[in-house]
Amino acid sequence: MGRVSEPTGEGVRQRNLSRVFRLVHVYGPLSRAALTESTGLNRSTVADLVSHLVGAGVVQEHAPDPSRRVGRPSPVVAVDPGVLVIAVNPEVDALTIAAVRLDRTIPLRERIELDRLISPEETAARIADRVSTWKSEALAGARVVGVGLAVPGLVRATDGLVRNAPHLHWTDSPLRDLVTAATGIPTTVANDATLGALAEHLFGAARGVDNVVYLNGGASGIGGGLIIGGMPVPGAGGYAGEFGQNRPGIASPADRRAGQGVLEDEVSRARLLAAVGLVSADEPTLETALHSNTSITVVEELARQRRILATALANAVNVLNPSVIVLGGFLATIASHDLDDLLEAVRAQAMPASMEGLSIRTAVLAEDRLLIGAAEMAFGELLRDPGSLGT
């Protein structure tokens, strides 16, 4: 076996720069004193690291809080709002493009409604057009350091190749390379639910929780993401978490709508839209329509889908023993109609030991979750080496 090389002085410095930068990125503005306590580094080292990050243009320092009256005032370190990425979510009915800052605020967002399936090439062209327009107008002077795409399909982790996005009819599409060539900006691509899980784990309903099952319900079906032992679980090729492709156990034949269909054929956004008489809608519109409609058709469809979803979640609980299940998109809407009832339905079908301490939550980041997850991925290289932006 070869020897494992020790980190060089420069390697240690880069790692410490990353630690400080990540703390401010994840937790928001922090004083130098708080950074010193969190990292265990001495004050002069933290001051030097912060100075380097300011010089690289990724953080800013502000005057200390004047309400602080005890001890020596400590400057506050915050991310620079001028550094951002472009986050994109292509779907069967719309292409959503947004600018996302390091502090997760979204100054610009556009949902482009589609009346046909969009191709990978057109997706790249539309992103490039939007970025060009924004950079000449609202984002003039900002530094766009990456593009991140949350795609409803199987994405190969090694190179961002979309192996199969069945509802979009994309097969073996080099989406990362197409967008990079069209925009001239480094691009990353991953499965949308995987990125939703990352966002909710870092910033949302599962923040601070080490064992999480996340299910995302979108126009293209149901996907999932896993956090086990505090770490994302992508699988060997990056394809883990495809809960929507499992075949659910359906106790009552009267509940079945899709023959021998998979979970996403039965628990379906399209079926909910049909129940309320809509052809297309964004998440808030669909949620409002479902909550405000008391017709027997809507009530029964919600109850039917909740029964089948409960069985699927019980299977996940038995296999993975999570502390928290987070539901996003239309699954959050289904659950929120009676979250306690859904939990009890899961409890009735899962092993009692695996249910101990389990909670089911809806995604805190709501319709922003996939965009924030895509942005986090796009910020990845900068977070690993924050000094690179100033070189």
Summed up:
With 391 residues, the chain is an alpha/beta fold. Helices cover 41% and strands 21% of the residues. It folds into three domains: 9-79, Arc Repressor Mutant, subunit A; 83-195 and 370-390, ATPase, nucleotide binding domain (Nucleotidyltransferase, domain 5), CATH 3.30.420; 207-363, ATPase, nucleotide binding domain (Nucleotidyltransferase, domain 5), CATH 3.30.420.
SSE order and pairing:
Layout: H1 9-27, E1 30-31, H2 32-39, H3 43-56, E2 59-62, E3 76-79, E4 83-90, E5 94-101, E6 108-113, H4 120-136, E7 143-151, E8 154-155, E9 162-165, E10 170-173, H5 175-183, E11 187-191, H6 192-203, E12 212-218, E13 221-228, E14 231-232, H7 263-266, H8 269-276, H9 283-292, H10 296-320, E15 324-329, H11 330-336, H12 339-347, H13 352-355, E16 359-362, H14 369-378, H15 380-384
Parallel strand pairs: 4-7, 7-11, 12-15, 15-16
Antiparallel strand pairs: 1-3, 2-3, 4-5, 5-6, 8-9, 9-10, 12-13, 13-14
